[in-house]
Specification:
This protein is 29% helix and 32% strand. It has 69 residues and is an alpha+beta fold. It comes from Turicibacter sanguinis.
Amino acid sequence: MSKLLIKVENMSCQHCVKSIHDAVAGITGVKEVKIDLKTKLVQIDYDEKFISQFILIEKIEDQGFNIQL
């Protein structure tokens, strides 16, 4: 199991939280998604056998968000 911790600078509301969650939560290999709006941090627990961190980041960026590792 791997963890991806990213900062999403332009995440500003509950709609943003839902968009990010919905973009990655249903992907095969994603076990858990934790999002903290106050700190703008997203933690994704995932299985590298099924998905890479690069694809997870791409899925979030595709929703219009800016990612910092």
